[in-house]
Amino acid sequence: MKISKKDLTAIVKEAYNAVKDENGGKNADYIPYLQNIPSSLFGIALCLPDGRIIEVGDTQYVFGIESVSKVLTAILVINEYGTAEVMNRIGADATGLPFNSIFAILLEKDHPSSPLVNAGAISACSMVKPTGDADKKWQAIDSYFARLCGGKLSVIDELYKSESATNFNNKSIAWLLKNYNRIYDDPDMSLDLYTRQCSYGVTARQLAVCGATIANKGVNPVTGERVFDSAIAPQIVSLIATVGFYEHTGDWLYTSGIPAKTGVGGGIMAIMPGSFGLAAFSPPLDDAGNSYRAQLAIKYITNKLGVNIFGDSVLEVV
Ligand code: GLN
């Protein structure tokens, strides 16, 4: 399907205007820092495979990446270990349960399920090389995130402290994984890496670039750098498609047609393979921890364009 950049820009702006006054949802309150972010913030950014970016609203506002970070670490470990090894050690199953579910680990004690829920993401952090060296592991995460997003990210110190002081459920997860031999480095260190990566500040624009890198099978469209092997792109998109919205993933895919990953900081990163990366950000969340306005905005755009991962249209922007 062909569309001009002008018409695509008009659709993104239309989505922004249609959604900006929607007032559903509320900021995450279980992480004190997130509770105080202005709820009216809202931005949408779309990045094309050739690096052109369309953006409207608060796309330069730096917010907590939170669970969207799980995708980036999943790519890092899949790229390092290969798809089969990550399947063996973590798994790729949708839990159908909330992101921080302990019940999910008990049900599937042979696997943390997927690198895109808390258990699997903590396990993925434990797999980052080199084993046993927290500083070098952090450097590996830090430089890889920068390559995926097309620029260095910085940790929001206040968020990191806020989350570290209150992450008792995640501590339980890390040690339960240890009980099942599903964590591959020190549990406290792995959890700390996870908490730090969740506390990265990111902009909607940077998430759109990261999404476009995935849509582009590993080549960052802005820097031109190959960040991961193109052969693993389908597995990455499948992880996002099956668990990106946790217990609401089916509803999301059915209504939006596009795989996407959410975070409790209010960001959503969506991927239309071959066509674009699309990010939206707004702090108020629904009951499952997914940004209320960002969901509406992305759905507005995909439905208007008629793109769907199960359809046959690739968007060609002229
Ligand atoms: N850091 C958050 C947590 O572990 C991430 C949750 C999310 O964004 N869904 O609870």
Give a written overview of the molecule.
There is one protein chain. The protein has 318 residues and is α+β, with helices and mostly antiparallel strands. The protein is 46% helix and 11% strand. The strands form three sheets. It has a five-stranded antiparallel beta sheet with strand order 3-2-9-8-7. Strands 4-6-5 form a three-stranded antiparallel beta sheet. The chain has a two-stranded parallel ribbon with strand order 1-10. The chain is globular and about 55 Å long. 56% of the residues are buried. Glutamine is lined by residues 66-67, 99-100, 118, 163, 170, 198, 263-264, 289.
Summarize the helices and strands and which ones pair or pack.
Blueprint: E1 2-3, H1 5-19, H2 32-35, E2 43-47, E3 53-57, E4 63-64, H3 69-81, H4 83-89, H5 103-107, H6 118-127, H7 134-149, E5 154-155, H8 157-164, H9 168-179, H10 187-198, E6 200-202, H11 204-215, H12 233-243, H13 249-256, E7 260-262, E8 267-272, E9 276-281, H14 292-305, E10 316-317
Parallel strand pairs: 1-10
Antiparallel strand pairs: 2-3, 2-9, 4-6, 5-6, 7-8, 8-9
Helix pairs in contact: 1-14, 3-4, 3-6, 3-7, 6-9, 6-10, 7-10, 9-10
The chain binds glutamine.
